[in-house]
Amino acid sequence: MSQTMNQTSPQTDTGFSYRPVPPTAPVTLVIGLVSLLTLLTEFILPLTLVGVFVGFLAVRRIRSFPNEYSGLWIAQAGLALCVCVIPASIAIHTHTYMTEVPEGYQRLNFYQDISLKGFVFNQGKDSFHPDVAALGDQKVFIKGYMLVQQGALEVDEFLLCRDSGDCCLGGQPKVTDMIYVKMPEGGTPFKYHPGMVFVAGTFKLLTPNPAGANPAYAIEPAQFGPARTYY
Predict the structure, then answer these.
(1) pLDDT at 1 > cutoff 50
(2) DSSP character for 114?
(3) I need a surface site. Which of 18, 98, 138, 220 has the fewest CB within 10 A?
C-alpha cells in the first residue's frame, strides 16, 4: 500500500499547476475598455496610448515566460482594443472638426485670431488690429465659455470668454478675451452650458479700449450650442 501511495503522489502533485497573471494584463484590459470612451471625447486618447504601451509589456512578459505566467488572452484583448480605438477615434474627431463649421462661416481661434492680436496705437489713439478689423461684419464661427449671471439657466445675452477660468472662477476677463453675444429680439434664449460652446454669427467691432471693462467685440448670433470639439 505504501508503494501504491508513492506511485500516485507525484500525479497528485502535478495535477494542479498555478501560474499567476501579471498585473499589467488586467490593467491593459481595463484601459482598453475605458478607451472606448475615446470615441466620444478626445481627452481619453492619452490613456489609450498608455494602454498600448502597458499591453505590449504584458504580452511580451507572458510570452517570454509562458511556464511562469498566464493571462495572455487578457493582455491581448486589452491591447487589441487600444490599438483599434486609436485610429477610429482620430477618424471620428477629425471628421467632426472638419464638419462642425456651418457653410459660409469662417473658423476663428479665440486666442490666435482675437486675443493675441490685441490693439494697436495709431495716430494718438487705440485702434483695432488690422487683422481683427478685417473681420468686421464677417460671418464667423468661434468657440469659448459662457460668462453669465450666477445661477442663470437661460439668458438673452452673455459674454463669450476665451478662458474657462474667467467664467468658472469669477475672474474679470481681459477686453480682448471676451465677445458680447446677444440674442436678437424675439429669439429663443440661450441655455447655459458650463463647458465650451460655439457661436456662429456676424462679427461686430465695438470700441477699442484696452483698459476698459466693456467688450470690444460682439457677435450677432445665428447658431449657438455646445461645442462638438475642444480645439
Answers:
(1) no
(2) I
(3) 18
